[in-house]
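hey
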């Protein structure tokens, strides 16, 4: 009797098996998401953020929100979004991940305080002692020592003053990049010109910009410098002699390498000594047959020279040290610049 009762059950099981296999269980596992190194404070009006997400089956997309407004959806890792802040204040960044079944992760949030530098810096350039003949145009007709004064300001913080100096001489045209690191909301920098002689006669240009901490640049300020000196006009007066001093000073140029293959700042050391004291230090950079005078300070030992592909070829640095008695010594170093 028991065997007859089990036959219908076995037949029913076989019938069910013939109709198909068991159905897969639905995916109900939520993905996981996290924010990666998002700063709590920023001083720019844009920010790129990144998230990491994982799921037992697979992540379909990661959503980014500022407050409740969705600002980006990234379907593929690395999951990133670019945020733009219209004004200063506090913003709540929220991120969530979604898998293929539509399961949504628990949201992760980060509060970001924005104090953005939205204003470009300003720059002003003057040449004290030179005659201002027109806006931005100065003329020098008397020998002497001159300097260019740069005043920069920003609403938050400055980073640098940079630009180019273009010399137009009888020997040719040469462009020298310039850059000076600065800080604070305002800064005043002085660019000393070499002792001027008739070799510099001509029209030269100096273009400068201030750069703030956010990377914003001021409008370029261009100064035209016209030098018209008499050929027979002497330069600086001879130093007062020191009675009995006939010993020449010593000067040495130390370079870190004899060949430069990458653009950047090239640091050289100039070492001087004298039994009484070195009173003046002059130099020149010879590039492609053009000699560019340099203004040097005998109190300094290290100088940074910006090097670009414009220097390609042999470059010779010549330095002359003088003491109060007029004794002098000269040293030179030649390097090869090969920047692709």
């Amino acid at each position: 009797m028991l065997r007859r009762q089990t036959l219908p059950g076995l037949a029913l099981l076989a019938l069910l098996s013939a109709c198909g296999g068991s159905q897969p269980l639905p995916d109900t596992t939520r993905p996981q998401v996290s924010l990666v190194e998002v700063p709590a404070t920023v001083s720019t009006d844009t920010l790129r953020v990144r998230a990491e997400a994982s799921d037992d089956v697979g992540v379909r997309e990661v959503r980014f929100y500022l407050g409740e407004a969705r600002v980006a959806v990234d379907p593929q890792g690395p999951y990133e979004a670019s945020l733009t802040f219209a004004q200063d204040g506090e913003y709540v960044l929220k991120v969530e991940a979604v898998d293929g079944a539509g399961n949504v992760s628990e949201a992760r949030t980060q509060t970001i305080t924005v104090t953005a530098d939205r204003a470009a810096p300003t720059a002003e350039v003057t040449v004290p002692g030179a005659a201002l003949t027109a806006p931005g145009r100065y003329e020098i007709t008397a020998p002497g020592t001159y300097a260019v004064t740069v005043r920069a300001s920003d609403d938050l913080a400055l980073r640098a003053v940079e630009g180019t100096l273009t010399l137009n001489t009888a020997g040719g045209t040469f462009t020298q990049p310039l850059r000076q690191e600065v800080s604070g909301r305002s800064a005043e920098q002085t660019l000393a010109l070499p002792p001027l002689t008739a070799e510099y006669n001509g029209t030269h240009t100096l273009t400068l910009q201030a750069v703030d901490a956010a990377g914003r640049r001021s409008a370029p300020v261009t100064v035209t410098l016209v030098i018209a000196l008499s050929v027979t006009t002497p330069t600086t007066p001879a130093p007062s002699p020191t009675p009995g001093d006939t010993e020449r000073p010593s000067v040495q140029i130390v370079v870190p390498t004899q060949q430069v293959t990458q653009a950047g700042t090239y640091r050289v050391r100039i070492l001087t000594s004298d039994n009484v004291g070195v009173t003046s230090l002059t130099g020149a950079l010879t590039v492609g047959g053009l000699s560019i005078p340099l203004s040097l300070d005998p109190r300094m030992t290290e100088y940074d020279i910006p090097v670009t592909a414009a220097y390609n070829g042999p470059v010779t640095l010549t330095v002359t040290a003088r003491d109060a008695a007029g004794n002098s010594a000269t040293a030179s170093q030649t390097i090869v610049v090969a920047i692709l």
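The radius of gyration is 35 Å. The helical segments are 2-19.
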